[in-house]
């Protein structure tokens, strides 16, 4: 007889459950098979996303903010080797010690690293050698999960869990980075010719917010990044948030009204970073006769008027809100409004800019050691985005998840929804 939810160990997986997300790290007894399945699922998804790309595609780096596909594939592998295998698998044989310098990203405590702007210069190891590196580490991680004692696994699983969600973040970056590279190519190559950006469903109305104290942040035993904690109370002002995302059709009205030419709509830094540098439309848009086309993962396509606007910076989102006589919600207003499915397009289309600076929650404590560099040291000069996008892997998005980028950046699938005061 199948166990009922009431009898199933807390955090355990149901029979036939998808491979990701894995069980909670506190579930006992430890389901080794489920953790191995989750690991293999994530590692396979990275390779599935990279598979359409040639060796030349995987080598290119189009700007300092982006990384080559080959580097992404190797870096997430280095993460498991550095933080999991070196310390927790007795007798583990390092694949190639020289790769430590090449594929460390920003972990200063882990040692020196290749400058970010120079990742595209790493022509060796080859794509095939990176594949061999991945296979070596995959085999070692499965051996670790299969062989060590349950007590030893208690220390392993939290690191493995971070590594899995970390790799999923790079799966999204893999797509957004190659899109940026393809957008610089005069041939406008398609990553997937069949790819289409979904339209935003008509979502009339708004979600009302009552003035009061709300609990914000991660709760429960499931995974969270350290920047989602601790759970805390915050004051929510009375107001309303649109159920609908802003679409390309609405953005065109902003453009046609001279939105990119009106300095009164723009923050000072935004004016010089955007229109001052020649911006007149979202990223990847280009004039096409009397209309506009945009670069997508499916190649160059006419702008789909009913799709959510995307590839916009915080500065652009803020200027649009001013033009509309409205404002962006705070990340806390967004979290409250999105509870219980009240914002139907909160996930799966575009990350949504909020007007919240990326700051530590009250009482925040980073993870110990080098992993403490994962989030905390970036809490300056960036803004929070909530939700998830078309490129976010399945099982990754969660309500309290805090994404963050600098206000001028727009190569991610970033959009917006608007809010009003009560």
TrEMBL record:
<feature type="domain" description="DinB-like">
    <location>
        <begin position="38"/>
        <end position="172"/>
    </location>
</feature>
<dbReference type="InterPro" id="IPR024775">
    <property type="entry name" value="DinB-like"/>
</dbReference>
<keyword id="KW-0408">Iron</keyword>
<dbReference type="GO" id="GO:0052699">
    <property type="term" value="P:ergothioneine biosynthetic process"/>
</dbReference>
<dbReference type="InterPro" id="IPR042095">
    <property type="entry name" value="SUMF_sf"/>
</dbReference>
<dbReference type="InterPro" id="IPR016187">
    <property type="entry name" value="CTDL_fold"/>
</dbReference>
<dbReference type="InterPro" id="IPR017806">
    <property type="entry name" value="EgtB"/>
</dbReference>
<dbReference type="InterPro" id="IPR005532">
    <property type="entry name" value="SUMF_dom"/>
</dbReference>
<protein>
    <submittedName>
        <fullName>Ergothioneine biosynthesis protein EgtB</fullName>
    </submittedName>
</protein>
<dbReference type="Pfam" id="PF03781">
    <property type="entry name" value="FGE-sulfatase"/>
</dbReference>
<feature type="domain" description="Sulfatase-modifying factor enzyme-like">
    <location>
        <begin position="204"/>
        <end position="342"/>
    </location>
</feature>
<keyword id="KW-0560">Oxidoreductase</keyword>
<comment type="pathway">
    <text>Amino-acid biosynthesis; ergothioneine biosynthesis.</text>
</comment>
<dbReference type="InterPro" id="IPR034660">
    <property type="entry name" value="DinB/YfiT-like"/>
</dbReference>
<dbReference type="InterPro" id="IPR051043">
    <property type="entry name" value="Sulfatase_Mod_Factor_Kinase"/>
</dbReference>
<feature type="region of interest" description="Disordered">
    <location>
        <begin position="1"/>
        <end position="24"/>
    </location>
</feature>
<dbReference type="Pfam" id="PF12867">
    <property type="entry name" value="DinB_2"/>
</dbReference>
């Amino acid at each position: 007889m199948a166990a009922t939810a009431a009898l199933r160990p807390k955090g355990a997986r149901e029979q036939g459950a998808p491979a990701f997300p894995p069980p909670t790290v506190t579930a006992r007894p430890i389901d080794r098979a489920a953790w191995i399945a989750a690991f293999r699922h994530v590692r396979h998804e990275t390779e599935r996303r990279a598979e359409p790309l040639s060796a030349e595609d995987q080598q290119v780096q189009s700007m300092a903010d982006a990384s080559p596909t080959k580097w992404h594939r190797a870096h997430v592998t280095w993460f498991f080797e550095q933080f999991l295998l070196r310390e927790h698998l007795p007798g583990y044989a390092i694949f190639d010690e020289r790769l430590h310098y090449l594929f460390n990203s920003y972990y200063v405590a882990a040692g020196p690293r290749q400058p970010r702007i120079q990742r595209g210069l790493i022509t060796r190891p080859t794509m095939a050698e990176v594949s061999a590196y991945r296979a070596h580490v995959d085999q070692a991680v499965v051996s670790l999960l299969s062989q060590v004692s349950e007590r030893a696994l208690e220390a392993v699983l939290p690191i493995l869990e971070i590594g899995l969600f970390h790799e999923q973040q790079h799966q999204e970056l893999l797509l957004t980075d190659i899109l940026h590279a393809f957008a610089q190519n005069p041939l406008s190559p398609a990553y997937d010719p069949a790819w289409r950006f979904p339209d935003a469903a008509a979502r009339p109305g708004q979600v009302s917010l009552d003035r009061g104290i709300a609990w914000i942040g991660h709760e429960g035993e499931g995974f969270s990044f350290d920047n989602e904690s601790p759970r805390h109370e915050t004051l929510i002002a009375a107001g309303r948030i649109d159920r609908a995302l802003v679409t390309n059709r609405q953005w065109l009205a902003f453009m046609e009204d001279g939105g990119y030419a009106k300095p009164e709509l723009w923050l000072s830094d935004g004016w010089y970073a955007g229109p001052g540098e020649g911006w007149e439309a979202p990223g990847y848009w280009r004039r096409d006769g009397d209309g506009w086309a945009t670069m997508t993962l499916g190649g160059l396509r006419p702008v789909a008027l009913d799709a959510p606007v995307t590839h916009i910076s915080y500065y652009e989102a803020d200027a649009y809100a001013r033009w509309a006589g409205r404002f962006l919600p705070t990340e806390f207003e967004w979290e409250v409004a999105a509870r219980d499915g009240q914002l139907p397009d909160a996930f799966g289309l575009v990350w949504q800019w909020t007007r919240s600076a990326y700051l530590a929650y009250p009482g925040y404590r980073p993870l110990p050691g080098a992993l403490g560099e994962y989030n905390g040291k970036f809490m300056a000069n960036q803004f929070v985005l909530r939700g998830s996008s078309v490129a976010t892997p399945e099982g990754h998005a969660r309500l309290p998840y805090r994404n963050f980028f600098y206000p001028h950046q727009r190569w991610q699938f970033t959009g917006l929804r608007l809010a009003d005061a009560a």
